[in-house]
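Dock nicotinamide-adenine-dinucleotide; give full complex structure.
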Amino acid sequence: MIGYRSVILRLSHYRRCLRQFEELGYTRVFSRNLGQAAGVSAAQVRKDFSFFGLSGRRKGGYIIAELLEKINQILKKDRIEKVILVGAGHLGNALIKYKGFEKEGMQIVAAFDADPAKLGKKGEVPVYPMDELFRFVRDYGIRVAILTVPAAVAQDVGERLVSAGIRGILNFSPITLRLPERVIVSYINLAIELEHLLYYVNESQRENR
Amino acid sequence: MIGYRSVILRLSHYRRCLRQFEELGYTRVFSRNLGQAAGVSAAQVRKDFSFFGLSGRRKGGYIIAELLEKINQILKKDRIEKVILVGAGHLGNALIKYKGFEKEGMQIVAAFDADPAKLGKKGEVPVYPMDELFRFVRDYGIRVAILTVPAAVAQDVGERLVSAGIRGILNFSPITLRLPERVIVSYINLAIELEHLLYYVNESQRENR
DNA sequence: CTGTTTTTGTGAAATAAGGTACAATATCGC
DNA sequence: GCGATATTGTACCTTATTTCACAAAAACAG
Ligand SMILES: NC(=O)c1ccc[n+]([C@@H]2O[C@H](COP(=O)([O-])OP(=O)(O)OC[C@H]3O[C@@H](n4cnc5c(N)ncnc54)[C@H](O)[C@@H]3O)[C@@H](O)[C@H]2O)c1
Ligand SMILES: NC(=O)c1ccc[n+]([C@@H]2O[C@H](COP(=O)([O-])OP(=O)(O)OC[C@H]3O[C@@H](n4cnc5c(N)ncnc54)[C@H](O)[C@@H]3O)[C@@H](O)[C@H]2O)c1
């Protein structure tokens, strides 16, 4: 059997590109074009689709609407997923204000912060004190939280999230969380992403000398 | 030969953890502890280090200062790297305000935006009109830019960055940039990261039923 | 209707990444 | 100084992921 994790990630990228194509009025797409748009090879696209039983027509390419329907099924994007955000600071605010999540079937429905000065409405999203976290998560059946608090308190807040019932955390603070295995944590470390890019820029410049 | 890309990325993580340990007063570290802090296995740590000729002492672990020196050498972190940011909107602003980059040897020295209302100082970082981009990049020898403009103009702005001399771009807008091969582009797509996390949360819940 | 072109679907090969196990060796307690 | 113990360094194995290459099918042109 084929590896799995990486394909799933690419499906999200394909989905985004396919919707773009659809908006532009296209109804069919070739593996080569989709690959280019998503930043992968054509063979990769075909193999990924074949893995999930998505088929096109030789010489005719794939039908976008079909692909999208099947991908949405695989990724279980049948409804808007409600998530919360904890830490309504600089980064948290940017995320709260971002309109792009809803287009992708996700919505930040509330934020939480320990600082009373941060409470109130941020655009459309209410910011509640931390006390409310537990009840909110339970009442609305929230499963996923975005964590944008300072590193020093991230472990602590992470634990509170878990005890409130959160099952998945998108963590922006630059530390590794120690949480029960059942909780799924994704990390986005922007400093390291930048550092990594810098490394390859240095590298490529050394090559060309 | 061992894979390469992934090791380099992990070095950055090790570096961050080692500095944390150092701050806490430790001078030595075991592969197991470092692995735990960085979120990888102990064997992985040892293998990575051995690949770069970093050695410890059997039973005595690794000396943190030594590791850091060598890692800094490998990652060429011998000076503060100056980068610029284009698109001083919600997300751009959060990044501009972030103090954490400097601690990691990187600095956003200026931002650029097409909207006159955004110009001026954002904290310590000046925001210039787009006209100034070319000159600034040339005069200060800037090599890397963070791109936080709306998706609709990202390709366009990306091209301008390249023609100004930029060699690496950290792109937050949800599109694949078509740029000359010599330019290195890293992508951070927050919506897809969140979607991906949601997928695995769904998955794990289905398993436990 | 036939030959040509294009594009899919996939087996096989290549590459990358990660895990296991254990010998080698340093340290420690006594 | 010596046996017990802990930890590294690495050879080997397993799995995951990607690329290559090409036959098969569909579409098209004439
Ligand atoms: N801003 C960025 O661009 C950026 C870049 C990389 C990483 N990060 C990371 O993201 C996180 C947030 O960064 P930021 O710049 O938004 O910081 P920030 O200080 O602006 O925001 C942090 C927010 O968390 C709140 N908070 C503090 N303690 C809390 C607690 N115990 N419970 C709930 N809320 C609490 C604060 O009130 C504040 O509103 C940090 O971990 C930072 O390292 C941020
Ligand atoms: N805000 C988020 O949390 C978030 C999340 C995911 C992705 N993104 C992506 O990041 C990018 C920025 O998002 P944002 O929320 O900060 O948007 P924003 O609208 O707040 O900021 C965009 C900024 O770019 C500037 N700009 C527009 N056209 C420009 C041009 N041609 N040249 C230079 N500057 C120009 C605008 O004046 C504005 O200041 C978008 O591509 C968005 O899809 C943002």
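Observed: Residues 2-7, 40-41, 43-44, 47, 57-60 of chain A lie near DNA strand D (CB under 10 Å from a C1').
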